[in-house]
Automatic annotation (TrEMBL), chains A, B:
Soluble hydrogenase catalyzes both production and consumption of hydrogen from suitable artificial electron donors or acceptors. This subunit catalyzes the tritium-exchange activity. This is Tritium exchange subunit. The keyword Magnesium does not apply. Transmembrane segments: none annotated. The keyword tRNA processing does not apply. InterPro entries: Aminotrans_V_dom (IPR000192), Aminotrans_V_PyrdxlP_BS (IPR020578), PyrdxlP-dep_Trfase (IPR015424), PyrdxlP-dep_Trfase_major (IPR015421), PyrdxlP-dep_Trfase_small (IPR015422), SP_NH2Trfase/AEP_transaminase (IPR024169). Keywords: Aminotransferase, Pyridoxal phosphate, Transferase. Pfam families: Aminotran_5. Belongs to the class-V pyridoxal-phosphate-dependent aminotransferase family. PROSITE patterns: AA_TRANSFER_CLASS_5. PANTHER family: ALANINE--GLYOXYLATE AMINOTRANSFERASE, AMINOTRANSFERASE CLASS V. It comes from Syntrophomonas wolfei subsp. wolfei (strain DSM 2245B / Goettingen). The lineage of its organism: Bacteria, Bacillati, Bacillota, Clostridia, Eubacteriales. Substrate binds at residue 337. It comes from the Bacteria.
Length: 383, 383
């Protein structure tokens, strides 16, 4: 099949040509002045994306690594932790905390729904002795395509002293997040999402309150130790060899993001959500996430009964070289997911929606070609 | 200054154009068939380089990450561990094991010398109750430019049941290592050395004996857990998002390595060592490592008294855009290090040696230009 693959996953996302070219530069000494300049630049850039003036450590690791780093730096063995979960990645954060010795209490919400801040508020109100040391929460749940309203979550935590620790791996820059304004204590993110670079870097941001708790932390750590990270950052270095080519890409991607404007990027992703959802609804499809908390980064579609998500994905892949994500765990074959995250154009989504209508028709779903697509066109035409 | 920088570090090493181009390919689904094929390919290729038929896990992390993985998968808290050290990286492996709860006994040798297998043999002979669970050792000590004879080390360990765990991050493929033949139980390596790709991937190989010990292991682990790694490897996946672009580079680099021939690569590096050492000796310089155990991957040069290594490095950098490594910790300014590892040509080394003579002369060291260089030319001419 001629032409490039359409990769519409909620990560890894397509990498812009500018970023690819930046990543092609020759290696430099990771203890030298060129790398120091890059490290300072990208650390400042990431802080802008996080809307924070606090600390950021960059790991040569994927997002799961920075989640582990959050657990081992800010949770001590035996600590009570309230892990809020609305899907696979909420569960993963809870599992990691438990593996490193936390007493984890899960607060689960049905898959496809966001966290109800009121339930969280009530649970924390019962913790009269303030034994809960941390609240873990997902910013954008990739497995369901639902985001949590972190400002409301912060309000629900209120004056409870638990650290608010956020997995923003797939959400940061695509879904609103203001670390300092919303008093988020620890925020994790990764490179292969809205940052538009290949996987292999992840980011751990934390404020002074978290840093003080880190200083008393009793978990074993070496690779993830933020004290070592901060010490070397002062010298413009990483404690061990950093993933240099990905830093080149990150520097260029941050430049692109700041050129586009962080607010514009959020609006762009909201528009993707709106056009995709309008089209899918018109096709008669049911969406897993209701309006109001559907993710701007991806859309989860409930596959028509008797067809299944995987058959549709296979058709899209074999006929059009379009890669969509499947459902995870209990949602396997129940849903398919369209990523509209990072370096994606309206044009790409129009093409994908057009192809999807064809796929549905040929998989035995009764549909009038062009009907859903027209809704997407109308939405684009209106903005 | 026009032209490319000469990067002569013991990692990161120059990246071949073929590898750069491979890394520029678009992203794919890390849970899809394209990635599965790459993962199977590179895992097989790495096994060939290790000379092993056992297991290899690839981490999105730098070499230090895979050292941590070795510690948390194969050493339990409270285990007695004998950490042999001949420099900075031997110390680092010991520190990591201690951080994760091992009772570490150091067996130190002077910096610039290799491990004396007889001393190791005698220490293990004293361990009548066989309480030592693991022996940690460095393959190629990057801080001093000395390699350990792992076949002799294996013979010294003899029938003692301790796991033999090797940090081969900077040595693998440049210095002989036969994992299965030498019964090395755990071997760690990294991408930014003889593998010729940018930093960001590391490799952990282990045999069945190590796997059985892993299954009883009591350390906390998630990101580094080899059980999860093996389980997903069967599906052609990584437990979490892999660093896709670096895999592309690794696949191409392995192709190049197998085309050149693994034995030829070892000989090439030995020739680099011989030509560089012949030239430096003729310049009247003292070398930290004596003949017989000097690393084929890098050469540590004792800076002339009153000049210091850093002044020479600065001259090389500013006048010629040649980057050499400095001494680490107590060797700072005492030595400088010339990396001749990975994608380096004889031509590059001739140019660097010629420049070094000029640097030495201009830093106040009496030298006849061309004298040392001639020895390198003669060596090349003779092979």
């Amino acid at each position: 099949m001629i032409g490039e693959q359409y990769l519409l996953l909620p990560g890894p996302t397509p990498v812009p040509e500018r970023v690819v070219r930046a990543m092609s530069r020759p290696m430099v000494n990771h203890r030298g002045s060129e790398f120091k300049e890059i490290l300072i630049n990208v650390t400042e850039g990431i802080k802008q994306v996080y809307h924070t003036e606090h600390q950021v450590i960059i790991y040569p690791a994927s997002g799961t690594g920075a989640l582990e780093a959050a657990a081992v730096n800010f949770i001590s063995p035996g600590d009570k932790v309230l892990a809020v979960s609305i899907g696979v990645f909420g569960d993963r954060f809870a599992t990691i905390a438990r593996e490193f010795g936390a007493q984890v209490e899960k607060l689960d919400f049905p898959w496809g729904e966001p966290t109800d801040p009121q339930v969280l508020r009530e649970r924390l109100a019962q913790d009269i002795k303030q034994e809960i040391k941390a609240v873990l929460i997902t910013h954008n749940e990739t497995s369901t395509g639902v985001f949590n309203d972190l400002a409301a979550i912060r309000a629900a935590v209120g004056e409870h002293p638990a650290l608010l620790m956020v997995d923003a791996v797939s959400g940061l820059a695509a879904v609103a997040l203001k670390m300092d304004e919303w008093k988020l204590d620890v925020v994790v993110s990764g490179s292969q999402k809205a940052f538009m670079i290949p996987p292999g870097l992840s980011f751990l941001a934390f404020n002074d309150r978290a840093l003080r708790i880190h200083q008393e932390n009793k978990n074993h750590k070496y690779y993830w130790d933020v004290s070592a990270g901060l010490k070397y950052l002062e010298k413009g270095q990483n404690p061990y060899t950093p993933a240099i080519s990905l830093y080149y890409g990150l520097e260029e991607a941050l430049k692109m993001m700041l050129e586009e404007g962080l607010d514009n990027i959020l609006i762009r992703h909201q528009n993707y959500r709106e056009m995709v959802r309008a089209a899918l609804k018109e096709m008669g499809l049911n969406l897993l996430a209701a309006d109001g908390y559907a993710s701007p980064a991806l859309t989860s579609v409930i596959a028509p009964q008797g067809i299944g998500g995987n058959k549709i994905r296979q058709y899209m892949r074999e006929r059009f070289n379009i890669v969509l994500a499947g459902g995870q765990q209990k949602l396997d074959d129940v849903i398919f997911r369209i990523g509209h995250l990072g370096y994606v154009r309206e044009l790409d989504l129009l093409a994908v929606l057009a192809a999807l209508e064809i796929a549905l028709l040929n998989c035995g779903y009764p549909i009038e070609l062009g009907k859903g697509l027209k809704k997407a066109q109308e939405y684009i035409s209106s903005i």
